[in-house]
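pinned: reference chain
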Amino acid sequence: MKKIALHWQIIIGMIFGVLYGITASYFDWVDFTNNYIKPWGVIFINLLKLIAIPLVLASLIKGVSSLSDISKLSRIGGKTISIYLLSTIIAVSFGLFLVNIIEPGKSFSEEKRIELKSQYAAKAGEKINSANNVKDSGPLQFIVDIVPSNFIQATGNNKNMLQVIFFAILFGIAMVMLPKEKTSVVKAFFDGVNDIILQIVDLIMLTAPYGVFALLGGLVVDFGGSVELFQALGIYSLSVVIGLLLMIMVVYPLILKSFTKLKYFDFFKGIGPAQMLAFSTSSSAATLPVTMERCEDHLGVSEEVSSFVLPLGATINMDGTSLYQAVAAVFIAQAFGYDLDLSQQLTIVLTSTLASIGAAAVPGAGMVMLVIVLSSIGIDPEGIALIFAVDRLLDMLRTVVNVTGDATVASVVAATEGQLKDVTDKELMS
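pinned: its C-alpha cells
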C-alpha cells in the first residue's frame, strides 16, 4: 500500500481535529478535551521546541565551519538581512493599503467596542506591561540582547535564539581560522550531532498528524462560545487574511521567479508540511526543525545556507506579523474615530519593521509589539482588547506567512550562491 505523503497526513489530522472540536463543543466535552486531548498537542509542541536550539547550534556550527572563506558568510548574511527587510516593508505596505481601502474599523459599533474592551481588559493590561518593559530598555537593547553573558543560560530558552545564533557563528568562525588538524575532531562531533538531531526530527514528525489533531481539537473547543465576536470582527479578519494570502500567492512567487528557477507549485509541495505545522503551532521557532528539514531535503537548499538563513529568519523575519500589526493599528485607530495622516502611517511602516525584528518566534508575541506600534502613533494601547477574540486564529495564519517567507529567502540566497540543487518529484512529495 502506498504511503500517504506527510502533508496529507497533517491535513487529515487538522480536519479530524476541527471536527472533533465542533463535536466536543456541541456535547460539552470541554473538561475531557482539556484533560485528555489538549495535553498531547502541548507535548507535540514541546518536542519540536526541545530540538530547536540543539538543531540551530549544531547545523550553524557545521555550516559556518565548512566555509573556506569568512567573507562568504558576510555575503550570505548581507543578502539574507536585505531580503528580509525588503519583504517586511512590502508586507507592512500591503497591510496599510488594504486597511485604508476596506476601512474595517468604521463598521465597528460603540456597543461592541465597549463589550470587547471590558471582556479582554486583563489580557490587554498584561500585553501593555510587557510592551512597557521593552520600551524602557532603550533603543539599542535588542543589540545588547544578541550577545549572551552566559551561553548555558542562552540555550535554556527558545526566546534567546539570536544569542544561540551569535555564539554558533562566533564558534564556527573561530574553527575556520584555526588549522584543520586542530578542529577536525570538533567538526566531526557537530556533524554527528546534526545528523542525530535530524533523525530525531523524522521521529517526531511521525506523531505530527496526532499532535495537530490534539492542538486543533483543543483550539476549537476554546473558541466554542465566541461566534458573535468572530462575526463582529469579520471584516477586520478578512483584511488581514487577504493581505496574508497576497504575500503567499503573489509576493513570494514573484521573488522566487525573479531569483530562482524553482516553480512555486514545487516550492509549495516541498514546504507544505512546515506550513501546516506553522498553522497548528502558531510558532516559527517550534516549526524551525521541520522548516530546515523540508528546505534541505525537499527544496534543494544547501545545509550551509539553511543553517544560517532559517534560524535567523525564525527570529527576525516576521512578514505575517508585520502585516497584521499594520492592519490592526489602523483598524483600532478607525474604531476609535482617528484619521491617521501620512506621517503616522509611515511611522507604522518603520515601527512595525523594527518591532518584527524584536518579536519572539512564539505564539502571541506580535500582540506585545502591536502595543509599541500603537503607542508610536498616539493610540490608546488598550485598543488591543478589540482584537483579542480573533487573534489566536490570525496568529496561526500569519505564522504560515512567516515560515513561508523564511523558506523563500533561503531558496533565493541558495540560488544566488549556486547552492540550490534540483530535486526529484519523489523528494518534493515525500
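why pinned: The two ends are 15 Å apart (CA to CA). The chain has one domain: 69-178+226-429.
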